[in-house]
Amino acid sequence: MPINRDFIGREYVADETYEVSRELIRRFADAIGDAQPAYRDVEAAKALGHPDVIAPPTFLTVLGFRFAGAGPLADPSLGLNYALVVHGEQRFVHHRPVRAGDVLTVTTTVDDIRDAGRNETLTTKTAVSTTEGEPVADLYSTIVSRGTAGAQEGANA
Amino acid sequence: MTAKVRYDDVEVGTELPAQTFQVQRANLVQYCGASGDFNVIHWNERVAKAVGLPDVIAHGMFTMAEAGRVVSDWAGDPGAVVEYGVRFSAPVVVPDDDRGATLVVKGTVAEKLDGNRVAVDLDARVDESKVLAKARAVVQLA
């Protein structure tokens, strides 16, 4: 089943916030096997000029899954089969490092949905800021829905 | 932010220390938990094969995180990585054995930008085949 193009342009503002803690940062750093002290030790982070421990450059990927239930991908009318989904592209633009103590709010926009050969792609932009309105990062993400383009009768889905 | 590398000490073509990462099933399970991405193709071989994949594959974001360590370790301050983007050009297939997949990542300074920033291009391969394309980080140097 092709992805529903009506979703292009839709904007989703998360109705909850995400509170970044030292423990969440440590858990993520452990999972990527990165021993960098600034992810775990406040004094090491301060020595680099940060007020608290900072998060790895790709940490904000957690937001997409934390808020997935309130975003476009969880809406059955989008027509996405998640087992057919792989990640196509990802880009982070950091306005400043994410750090423990941040309370983040997220706005996600569906930028584009299009065919790419037999696949389809869905591109989103997610703006991340603190609840005080300080911009923290912009995330650009493209996912690929394998084999669902123009899914007609007899097509290999 | 305090990158430990000085802009003036870097030229286009400067190579970053390469790193090798062993990616095993256990890493993917741990990353599922830490990231919240529990897509079955990252832990269930039966489902992965049923949807046409050769085997369980690594999260693209896991591969991206590992590759990024070449840049953040070089810079000395992960907060100096102001932009980071990749295209996932081929999946990292992770067999259920004691070795897993071997990811080799190299980085090269591709461009010197204004404001003491540089663009670093990353080359990430498994068994000589590229798994990331257009992998580029912008780093704020001292």
Task: Give a structural overview.
The complex is a heterodimer of chains A (157) and B (142). By secondary structure, chain A is of the alpha+beta class. Chain A has a single domain (5-145), classed as Roll (Thiol Ester Dehydrase, Chain A), CATH 3.10.129.10. Chain A contains three helices and six strands. Chain A has helices at 22-31, 42-47, 61-66, and strands at 11-13, 18-19, 85-94, 103-116, 119-130, 135-145. In chain A, strands 1, 2, 3, 4, 5 and 6 form a six-stranded antiparallel sheet that branches. Chain A is elongated. Chain B is an alpha+beta fold. Chain B has a single domain (7-140), classed as Thiol Ester Dehydrase, Chain A, CATH 3.10.129. Helix content of chain B is 23%, strand content 35%. Chain B has helices spanning 25-35, 45-50, 60-75, and strands at residues 15-23, 81-88, 101-112, 117-126, 129-130, 132-140. In chain B, strands 1, 2, 3, 4, 5 and 6 form a six-stranded antiparallel sheet that branches. In chain B, a hairpin with a 4-residue loop joins strand 3 and strand 4 (117-126). The termini of chain B are close together. The A-B interface holds A 27-28, 30-34, 36, 38-39, 47-50, 54, 56-58, 61-62, 65-66, 68, 82-94, 96-97, 140, 146-147 and B 1-2, 21, 27, 30-31, 33-37, 39-41, 47, 50-52, 57, 59-62, 64-66, 68-69, 71-73, 76-79, 81-88, 91, 134, 137.
How is the secondary structure organized here?
The complex is a heterodimer of chains A (157) and B (142).
Chain A: E1 11-13, E2 18-19, H1 22-31, H2 42-47, H3 61-66, E3 85-94, E4 103-116, E5 119-130, E6 135-145
Antiparallel strand pairs in A: 1-4, 2-4, 3-6, 4-5, 5-6
Chain B: E1 15-23, H1 25-35, H2 45-50, H3 60-75, E2 81-88, E3 101-112, E4 117-126, E5 129-130, E6 132-140
Antiparallel strand pairs in B: 1-3, 2-6, 3-4, 4-5, 4-6
